[in-house]
Design a protein that fits this description.
Strand order of the largest sheet: 1-2-5-4-3
Largest sheet: 5 strands, mixed
Distance between the termini: 36 Å
Oligomer: single chain
Strand content: 5-15%
Structural class: alpha/beta
Helix content: 40-55%
């Protein structure tokens, strides 16, 4: 066990704590699952006066459904506060954390510190429900934390991957050192080709991960061979990649010319897919919106490359970036997003006229802005992976909740807040 903190020394602790029949001995005797104990003197933790309920999912996962307070440092009170828990606060002193190994105990004491800070300094704290905490704790203890615990004979990897694998390992350590993640939370992935990526293994502490533990994943099949289990939601990730890529390849692979007639608000994929056609004729009432940044996701439909070619980098960023510019039909015509604008009551007639002329003149299938099919397909493949990454990230659920709340759709906002909060739980079943 460890004693740490400012002006905290072994001599500060009564003899009964460190003798075999004292607190430390009693913990090891009564908790056969415990191999590490950390006692930390800390002012914020010592100021906690009432039971703390988790507002952070990592507190629920590692510590339990709540953190109890020991009114003093007597073994009986501390053991009582630790019942079915992996940590407690000690009034006037600090905190005590338990772990099945040192890494888990270190994660637990950091979580106790972070939660104490939230409790003392936070406003309008939103606590997780008891059922949510119970499920998170169960899944972590019985499923997630046991992933990749076996010793494996890991395969060798190509020499050209060594540098990037080592960078992933060092990045993980930096995340821990900066306090951005605790224990095994989060994952780091890097695409090394259009069909492969390197990703951290599931459930391994970043200080335990070596270059050989990094998993090479086939993005098409989600197979990883005789390697460790990869982190993340690979099946759902694969489904998003395949469906998004197929959607836009339907337009890209169509051999016949396509004319799009827009008669009202166009949002998201209806805008990006339309730009992959031969041309767009819009009613004066049409508007165009691609709120990807507001929703916490990446651009799709080749828009990261195709939009700048159609209307210039500045206008593309206005639409794709945080500004979320929604041009009218007239503005879209001016910047080059659409090719024709007509009065609303003339849209169908004018669209038919343009289509008829195209047939008569044998207009071929072509892409706007000088783009080529194979190049756009490569962009679509890349964007599909980036979109899948974004859909499974915490910022996506946060931005979706904020967006729905702004639209006064409180139930939908609550759903996304819940999905974000429960992500560490449901992600383990995917």
């Amino acid at each position: 066990y460890f004693v740490n903190g400012e002006e905290a020394y072994l001599s500060d602790i009564d003899d009964f704590l460190i003798k075999s029949d004292g607190l430390i001995g009693e913990i090891f005797k009564s908790r056969k699952d415990i191999n590490s104990i950390i006692l930390l003197k800390n002012d914020e933790m010592g100021k906690i006066t009432r039971r703390v309920h988790p507002s952070l999912d990592d507190l629920a996962q590692i510590i339990g459904t709540s953190v109890r307070i020991s009114d003093d440092s007597s073994p009986s009170n501390i053991l009582g506060a630790l019942k079915k828990r992996y940590g407690c606060y000690i009034l006037g002193y600090g905190g005590l954390a338990l772990g099945r190994d040192l890494e888990e105990a270190l994660a637990a004491i950091r979580i106790l510190q972070k939660s104490a800070h939230v409790e003392l300094c936070g406003n309008n704290i939103k606590y997780l429900s008891y059922i949510d905490c119970l499920l998170m704790n169960y899944v972590y203890k019985h499923k997630y934390s046991k992933a990749n615990s076996d010793t494996l004979e890991l395969p060798d990897y190509p020499a050209n991957e060594k540098e990037i694998r080592n960078e992933i390992v060092e990045c993980g350590k930096t995340l821990v050192n900066e306090g951005i993640v605790q224990g095994t939370w989060g994952n780091i992935s890097v695409r090394i080709s259009p069909t492969e990526m390197l990703i951290t293994p599931s459930g391994m502490d970043y200080y335990s991960v070596s270059d050989k533990d990094i998993v090479k994943l086939d993005l098409k099949t989600m197979e990883y061979g005789d390697q460790r289990k990869p982190s993340g939601e690979k099946k759902l990730h694969q489904m998003i990649v395949e469906n998004n890529q197929t959607l836009f390849e339907t337009f890209l692979d169509c051999p016949k010319p396509i004319l799009v007639a827009m008669n009202g608000p166009a949002i998201g994929a209806s805008v990006t897919s339309a730009t992959l056609c031969n041309g767009i004729i819009a009613s004066e009432k049409a508007t165009f919106s691609t709120p990807f940044a507001a929703l916490g996701i990446k651009p799709e439909g080749c828009s990261s490359v195709h939009f700048p070619r159609l209307m210039g980098e500045a206008n593309a960023q206005r639409m794709l970036g945080p500004e979320g510019w929604k041009p009218t039909a007239a503005e879209a015509l001016e910047v080059g997003l659409v090719q024709w604008v007509v009065p609303d009551d003339q849209l169908q007639r004018e669209a038919y006229k343009i289509a008829r002329e195209g047939v008569d003149n044998e207009v071929p299938r072509a892409f706007l802005g000088g783009s080529q099919r194979e190049e756009l397909k490569a962009v679509n493949a890349r964007e599909s992976i980036e979109l899948a990454d974004a859909f499974l990230s915490a910022p996506f659920f946060k931005e979706q909740a904020r967006f729905m709340w702004g639209k006064n759709k409180k139930s939908s906002a609550a759903l996304f807040y819940s999905l974000g909060a429960l992500r560490p739980l449901w992600a383990r079943f995917l």
